[in-house]
User: Fold this.
Amino acid sequence: MPTYRFPHAALKIGLFLVVIIFLASCSFFGERKKGQYIPIDFDLKQDVGTFSGLGANVPISFYSRRMKVLQTFNDLGIKYIRVKRESDNWDDILALRASTSRLGIKWIYSLDAIPIDFVNEYGQLIDVKGFAGWWAEEVDELLYQDVPADFIELLNFPLVAPGDSLPFTPEIYNELIHATRLELDLREFNEVLITGPGLPNPGVDGDNELWYMGLDQEAFETLDHWSVQMWENQIEDGELRPAIEQLIQYLEEIESRKAIFVNSYATSHSQFGDSQYPDPNQYDVLGNLDSYETYYYSASFSLPYALRVYSNTLDLLRPGQVVPIIYQLYDAPADVKYKKKSWGLLDLNGVAKPIFTLLSNLMKRIPDRAVVVPPTQDLAENLNAIVFNNREQVLVTVSNEDTQSKSIQVRFKGAGRVLEFSSAVTCQSHELNAVALGKRDEIETLETEYKLRFDSESKSYSFTVAMEPQSTLIAEFQYK
Assistant:
């Protein structure tokens, strides 16, 4: 029986078509269709101001060289620390000062309660001049010990009632600002600045507005920064970005826009998906009592918590002229042992928790004198992103809190010059620990590369990436 043979040319054409179809189906050939990517667009000409750095609340009731404070500050790019002195602990303060002075870190000095000499039986301030003089004497003592007092916050959280009423009213607060500034100037502490009012949330409805409207023009000008706390459970819709943007819009309307210290933030969430973690305000001892690694455990040891704090950080940076100050830099023994609190970015042994890993990977890469560039559109659920840009570099970070991967396309307009890829890292965890194990989630940091494409029609650069579930991306590009 004769054998039928395909013509040689036809066979080549057939094989070529099969290969083309296979490559296209596997997305190895050409671009994916535009609709398959979630867009994240930036206009590099539309910045909102210079990046002012990150801050941290530092417990000075405990100091240990295990914490490697200098390295920790450096890794996080800390520009401000917020401290409180509750007892005579000059040794701890001086040890902390030695670390901060080498990095040029500025101190915000705050106070949890008014000294009893200046309040009545209900905890209300009755001696404004005396309390203002106390603050001036406190600054004098700090400076005598060569401890910075760049900013003072007259009272942390003045809306917390110590007795039957608030420590002082907005009207008394206005008077206190005047009196304190006068006492500082009389001692020639003109460079010590005052920040406030330190409210528990950025809302300006109802009584909160009085803390702004109750100030006269001189008090407005005296306050160098506004200060406010930011926690989801203290905000009406539970979202930080619209809340801080509404405050900024309000301050612009009353012609008092100035830089803002978010003097306390992390996240008030401890349930992520179906997993309920122990609240960092009341940790649990779980399943690892015989392990030296950890004998206490809370949400702060988990990746989902870290991602939420990371996203909150981006939300606070997004409007510009905002310095986010992490609620607590490291776990202190007194907090852990007696108060069962574990909010720190580092545990008792100085070991990094997931949130430290995520934030340090970003902060140490932000270029000098960078400006903040927010996305030009609202992003898809569980995604967040921001750009830091200067004359030499463009740094973009994207976070994906979702438990599913997301295919995204990041696009830059307005570069004005040629951009080329420099480096990129992703942070992720292949397996999250069950809550019952009481173990820290391990974060894997991977280097990767991306191809930056230029579109001549729109004069924009773009790159595409499949974001892993519950991961962050940091990509750096250089101007040529």
Observations:
- The domain at 54-366 is CATH 3.20.20.80 (TIM Barrel).
- Confidence is low (pLDDT under 50) at residues 1-7, 18-32.
